[in-house]
From TrEMBL:
InterPro entries: Ergot_Alk_Oxidoreductase, NAD(P)-bd_dom_sf, NmrA-like. PANTHER family: PRESTALK A DIFFERENTIATION PROTEIN A, PTHR43162. This is SDR family NAD(P)-dependent oxidoreductase. It holds the Pfam family NmrA. Gene3D superfamilies: NAD(P)-binding Rossmann-like Domain (3.40.50.720), UDP-galactose 4-epimerase, domain 1 (3.90.25.10). It comes from the Bacteria. Residues 2-237 form the NmrA-like domain.
Length: 278
């Protein structure tokens, strides 16, 4: 039996659809009642290890993903402890590109810490390390639609953005097929592009003149907070973008094509598919 967490988010929803489509039995751990086609849904709280152990009974493989929160590292640590106690054999964890325990980026440090905890537990692991999500741009869709602009502190550094649907496909493969134990997969799109190129692709897809405006971090932080991000998350995003601006997210991986048999989705295709949002 497979259990997936984060089943109602972008990646989890796509993963659940793929598992259901291929006829793979799975459970979905949710915080509130929700119907997920093909899944045996269980209500559970990742802050409660006992409820997690109950949900994990009979589970051999688990997909670990949590929402971004200040408690994410603790919640994932709870899950790893519960999985080990319940006899789970293999965890597929959604991590982050360039996760490393000494990273200046807090999100990467916490992912690296959980990766290490899983390794030390003795359970088999597959760590999925995706780069910046293409779908993240949808969070700025209203801004782009009304102002024809978007902003970030990144300069002209290229980033190999990845489509979350490709991440979900790799996750489904790692969960349902053999020979993915104790592997680390960097997941990227087929090319590294700048934010100015992102604007160009959006312009071509929408027929509008959309531009990217590079802004200093000192300007971006209050804008993020005004947009509703809590301070810890705004600061973490600034650390992420400093990482991108240093050119540390430009590497391109062939893993998606190697595992799925299909090329990773490119941003131009994403822009055309989601043009109506912008």
């Amino acid at each position: 039996m497979i259990l997936i967490t984060g089943a109602t988010g972008n990646i989890g929803t796509a993963l659940a659809k793929q598992l259901a489509a291929q006829g793979t039995a799975f459970r979905a751990l949710v915080r509130s009642p929700k119907h997920i086609p093909g899944a045996d849904t269980l209500i559970g709280d990742m802050s409660d290890k006992d409820s997690l152990i109950k949900a994990l009974q009979g589970v051999e493989k688990a997909f670990l993903l949590t929402n971004s929160s200040e408690e994410a590292e603790q919640l994932q640590s709870n899950f790893v402890d519960a999985a080990a106690a319940a006899g789970v054999k293999h965890i597929v964890k959604l991590s982050q590109f360039a996760a490393e325990k000494n990273s200046p980026v807090r999100f990467m440090r916490y992912h690296a810490a959980i990766e290490e905890k899983i390794i030390q537990s003795g359970m088999a692991y597959t760590f999925l390390r995706p780069n910046l999500f293409m779908q993240g741009l949808l969070g700025f869709a209203d801004l782009i639609k009304h102002t024809h602009q978007f902003y970030a502190s990144i300069g002209d550094a290229p980033v190999s953005l990845v489509d979350v649907r490709d991440i979900a496909t790799v996750a489904a493969i790692a969960l349902s097929q053999p020979d993915h134990e104790n592997k680390v997969y960097d997941l990227t799109g087929p090319a590294a592009i700048t934010h100015a190129q992102i604007a160009q692709f959006l312009s071509e897809a929408t027929g509008k003149s959309i531009s990217f405006v590079d802004v200093p971090a000192a300007t971006m932080r209050p804008a993020l907070i005004q947009a509703g991000f809590p301070e810890w998350q705004a600061d973490g995003l600034l650390e992420d973008y400093a990482h991108y601006a240093r050119g540390e997210a430009a590497a391109v991986s062939s893993v998606i094509e190697e595992l799925t048999g299909n090329p990773a989705r490119d941003f131009a295709s994403f822009a055309r598919e989601f043009a109506s949002f912008f």
